[in-house]
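Batch 3, record 17
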Amino acid sequence: MSKPHIGIVVATTREGRFADKPAAWIRDIAAARGDMEVELLDLRDYPMPFFAEAASPAWAAPKDEVARRWGQKVAAMDGFIFVTGEYNHGVPAVLKNALDYAYREFNRKPAAYVGYGGVGAARSIEQLRLINIELQMAPTRSAVHIAGADFIGMFMHGKTFADMQHLEPAARSLLDDLLWWTRALKSARAEMPAPA
Ligand SMILES: Cc1cc2nc3c(=O)[nH]c(=O)nc-3n(C[C@H](O)[C@H](O)[C@H](O)COP(=O)(O)O)c2cc1C
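Prediction for the assembled complex:
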C-alpha cells in the first residue's frame, strides 16, 4: 500500500493565531516517521463565505469556487489531524464552516486531534468528534491536549515546543493510532464501495 496522505487541518485563521506552532510541531514529527505523507491544510488558504448554499454538500457540490477547491483537497486525503483551539468552549466557527462545505470527501476517513488552550481544547475536540461522526468519519481516541502551564508558557512566556518534550509520547501514540485507522479504512474503501 502506498503511503497514506494525512491532511493536517489548521483550524483557526485569526491574525496572530497560535495554531501555526502546534501545526508545524505535529507536521514535523509525522514527516520524520517516513510512513505517511503529511500536508498542512491551512483554512486561511480556503476563505469560504459562511455557508449559504442551496443544498447540503451531501447532495450537491457547492457553487462557491473556493469550497470546490477545498472539497477536492479533502478528497485527496486519507486521514486528518485537526489542530484546533477552543472558542467559547466550542469548535472555532471557521472550522465548522469548512466541515459543513464538504461531505462525501470526508466519509469513511479517520480523524485525530491536537488541541491547545486552557484545557487543551478538550471541550472543542469532544464536539469535533461528534461532528466528524455525522460526516461519517472515524474519530480516534487519540489526541494531544496542550493545556494549562504548557499552553500559557508557549502562548505568553516565550517557551517553545523544544521545552515540551513530555508531549512527544502523546504525539507518537496519536500518529501510531491514526496510521492504523488510515491504512485499515483506505484498504476497506478500495475493496468495498460504501453503501449508497
Ligand atoms: C473568540 C475566542 C474565544 C475563546 N474561548 C476560549 C475557550 O473557550 N477556552 C479556552 O481555553 N480558550 C479560549 N480562548 C483563548 C484561546 O485558547 C487562545 O486565544 C488561542 O490562542 C486561540 O487559538 P488561535 O490563536 O489559534 O486562534 C478564546 C479565544 C478567542 C479569540
